[in-house]
Each structure stands twice: as C-alpha cells, then as structure tokens.
Amino acid sequence: MFSTLAEMSVASRLAPFGSTVFTEITALARAHGAVDLGQGYPTWEGPDFVKEAAIEAIRHASNQYPPSMGIAELREAIARRWLTDTGMSVDPDTEITVTSGCTEALAATFLGLFEPGDEVILFEPVYDAYPVGCALSGAVPRYVTLHHPGFRLRADELEAAVTSRTRAVLVNTPHNPTGRVFDRAELAAVADLCRRHDLVAITDEVYERMVYDGEHLRLATFPGMWERTLTLSSIGKSFSLTGWKTGWAIGPEHLTAAVRAAHQFLTFTTPNPMQHGAAAALAAPEDYYVELVAGYRRRRDLLTAGLAELGFEVTVPEGAYYVLADHTRFGFADDVTFVHHLIEDVGVAAIPPSAFYPVSDEGRRLVRFAFCKDEATLGEALRRMQRLRS
Ligand code: PMP
Ligand code: GLN
Questions:
Q1: Which residues have C-beta within 8 Å of that of residue 199, sequence separation ≥ 6?
Q2: CB of 20 closer than 6 A to ligand 2?
Q3: If you measure from the C-alpha of residue 103 to the centroid of ligand 1, how many angstroms do you get, rounded to a whole number?
C-alpha cells in the first residue's frame, strides 16, 4: 500500500531529475574556487531605483497579503509595457497574473492547463523547468531538436511531433541555452501549427530585453495567436535581480483563469515589496535598456572572441546571456568529462549541456558559458583557459 502511494507521488515522478544541474555545478565551482560561468546570475546587483522602491514599500506600504493576482500598480505597469511593446491593450484585472518568478508562472501554467496524458511540444536543448512541469502535471513532453550549430527551428520536424494528444507548444525566445532569437519565419511556423491543430502556445520570454542581433518577436502578436497564447516573463534578467523571483503571465481571460486556478494554491501571492520594486522597474526609461544591451553586447563579444581564440567552435548568440561552444577540439569524451576537467583542473565553471538534451546526444560535444559576468571575471576565466591549449 505504502509503496503504491509512493510510486504515484510527485516526488517519485521528479526523482529521475535529481538535483538541478545548476545547484550541482554551483556547489562544485565553490568547492574548487573556480571562476563561475555556470549558473546564469549576474556578478553585479540590480539598479538602485528598483531596490529603493522595494525598501520604500517595506517601510511605508502594507506588508500583509497582496491580492492573489498581484498588486494593481504592477499589473498596470505590465499592461503599459505590453501596450508600448506590442500596440495591444490588455486588461490588467483579467489578463495579467503576477507570479513568484517565471518558474512559478510555468508551474501554474502546466498545472492549470494539462490533464495527465496531454502532450506538450518542447524544443531541446530544453530549460529544465519544462520537463519538470510535464512531470508535475502528468503531461507528456514531445521533443523537437534545434540542431547544432545553427539551432534553427524546423517546421517539418515540428509538424512531425504533433499527435491527436498534442495540446500545446512551448517556445523560449531569446533562448536559453542556444542564444537563438527566433525569427519571423520560425515563429510563423509555430503560429501556423497552433492554428491548424488548435494548440495553446506558451512562451517564456524572460530574456526579452537581451537581444543583440535580430528582433524580439512575441508569438502572442501573430495573427490569431492572442487568444491561444500565454506569455510568461519576469524581472530577474532584465533588471539583474535573479533572486527576486517576481514574474507574470499575460494571456486571454480563459487561459489566465487556468493559471490563476493553480497559482492561488501554489503560492497564493508574491511578496509585496518585490511587486512594488517590479512596478518601478517596468517604468524605467528606454535609456536603461539601451545601456543594459550595450553592456551585454560587449561581454558577449569579449567571451565569444576569447573562446574562438582558444579553439572552441562558437555559435555566436543573438540573445540571452549564454554561449554554447563546441569543445571537441580538446579531446574529451563528452561534456560532463570536459566540465569536470574545466572546474577541477582549470578553475573555470560551466554547464554540461547534455542536461538540456533529454533525447538527442548533440549536447555531449557542447559546453555552456554564461556571460552575465563582469569583464574582469570573463577575462580571468579566459586567462585560466589558456591551459586548455597545453
Ligand atoms: N526560463 C528560463 C529560460 C530561464 O533561463 C530562467 C532563469 N532562471 C527562468 C525561466 C526562471 O525565471 P525566474 O527566475 O523569473 O523564475
Ligand atoms: N536560469 C538559470 C540558468 O540557466 C538557472 C536558474 C536556476 O538555477 N534554476 O543558469
């Protein structure tokens, strides 16, 4: 009896995932004093005007439960941003939900939308929270591989993944870990698929502001897509506040209702001070983003040029803040072996991408470096990696 219950538990369904690769690599990096280009957290702190707004809220605003859907100031700020970015009006009362990071928005979306056995199309390399969302909800992932080195989304392979059980497709753009910013043709193929097969689209746009080449396009703005799309994001990346875990879901009322059904019992709400800080963040002038992108472009160029110089084959990222590099030139059996050598003998931490490839083995030849690190840190990592040449 007990073992039957245990087999049905969420814990047993999550057991195969172990602890996250980020937790594992961060611990290993610290133990070896490695320069950490692993987990994607900036080495600097978020802007003072955002932190001050949160401090002010702790001092002077209510520290009791905010409304479950989020404080009005933040929902209105999200709606204003959406109008500026897309020209579309959204109703902050019925079409926006504040969540505890994009991670909770993802969990609430999976739990709110899917029945066990429903199929969800995911792209690999895949961000780890998506397969876990499937495991939590009982949904079944169907993977479409973005092939190295270009990582383009192929419409024929997407079409081949659809079955009579398919309910949704999840697109992350700009993409972690490839750095792809999907272009109009690629997203039009997803939109076309969704309309023809009556699918829901879930988009993870947490890197929406980190775009160096191309343009960030939102699937929700494609013809016929608003009513079937949930757009998820957060302030963690755009404001260098990954520890704040303040995000949101934007979508039509019927999809928002599903997200809220789960959200109200997952966390009920998100800490009040962070919501006030996030509202201030979203009122930032355009200059803030111009400077953010200029800094990231400099760091991207520094790291990609340095890696290429060392002998890595680099796919230059169009967005987000990661580089996937091919390490095969150095003669290691796979990504895990290479990363262990890198951390333990070279003193630089990175992520072994096979963790992002549940199906294909294309991740074994690759290594992921994060460039949300100051130039001194990137420079020191490159200096240490000179050892790879000998
Ligand atoms: N989606 C992607 C693709 C990410 O890289 C991250 C980074 N942590 C998240 C979601 C989670 O965002 P948050 O910290 O807002 O939960
Ligand atoms: N998004 C971060 C990364 O890809 C990790 C966040 C986490 O540790 N869950 O590095």
A1: 121, 162, 166, 167, 168, 169, 193, 228
A2: yes
A3: 6
| Residue 8: per-residue pLDDT | 64
> pLDDT tens digits, residue range 319-346?
999 999 999 999 999 999 999 999 999 9
Q: How far apart are CA 171 and CA 360, in angstroms?
A: 18
* Domains in the chain: boundaries: 2-46+287-389, 63-284
Give, in words, the CATH class of 2-46+287-389: alpha beta
CATH classification of 63-284 is 3.30.70.120, yes or no? no
Q: What is the mean pLDDT of residues 293-317?
A: 98
Model-level pTM? 0.97
The tokens for 262 are: 């789960």
Q: Give yes or no for residue 2 having a pLDDT over 80.
A: no
Atom of ligand 2 nearest to the CA of 128: 9
pLDDT of residue 122 exceeding 50, the answer is: yes
On the question of pLDDT at 133 being above 80, the answer is: yes
Query: Going by CA atoms, what residue is nearest to atom 9 of ligand 2?
Result: 22
